[in-house]
Design goal:
The chain is mostly helical. It has a single domain (11-147), classed as AhpD-like, CATH 1.20.1290.10. Helices cover 66% and strands 0% of the residues. The protein is built from 8 helices and no strands. The protein has helices spanning 7-10, 12-27, 32-46, 49-61, 66-71, 84-97, 106-140, 154-159. The radius of gyration is 17 Å and the shape is globular.
Length: 164
């Protein structure tokens, strides 16, 4: 595998435009943890290991439970773990990320308008579009997650009680 371009070095104006989208999303009224959940789910679908790693750690820093972070990819089977809002965010993220399948369905869109309102729904759509663009940059340029010495949330594992 040869080293690929650093997009910021080669196309700094394009990178600046992506940063502007990031600033818009950062200022949006979406809960910070929900933004990270959107980023994790889109990154999982797109196979962007760099972004899955980065945003999973960011979610843990925001005090997301380790269980939630680990179960995002299986949220449908763990509906008892995720709120109605979170489930709708995952559904929107999947439908927009996999736009070639059927797009954002009328049912999901109407549920979003009902639960979030028009302004926040538009912000959520932009957040999903933005992470999808970053994922494509990350995958195309083969960004890789760093090796980490200490994993956030590992103390949660030691303190969790397993129920069988």
């Amino acid at each position: 595998m040869s080293k690929r371009i650093n997009f910021n070095d080669v196309q700094s104006k394009a990178y600046d435009a992506m940063d502007a989208l990031d600033r818009f999303v950062a200022e949006a009224s979406i809960d910070k943890l929900h933004k990270e959940f959107i980023k994790i789910r889109a990154s999982q679908i797109n196979g962007c290991a760099y972004c899955v790693d980065s945003h999973s750690h960011d979610a843990l820093k925001l005090e997301a439970s380790l269980q939630k972070v680990l179960l995002i990819s299986a949220w449908r089977e763990a509906k008892n773990i995720f709120s109605e809002e979170e489930q709708l965010l995952f559904r929107m993220t999947e439908e927009i990320t996999l736009i070639h399948q059927h797009g954002l369905s009328d049912d999901t869109y109407q549920n979003a308008i009902h639960l979030f309102g028009e302004e926040k729904t538009a912000q959520i759509i932009m957040a999903i579009i933005t992470i999808n663009a970053w994922n494509r940059i990350g995958v195309a340029t083969e960004l890789r997650p760093p090796h980490r010495r200490k994993e956030p949330g590992i103390n949660q594992l030691k303190n969790d009680v397993l129920c069988h």
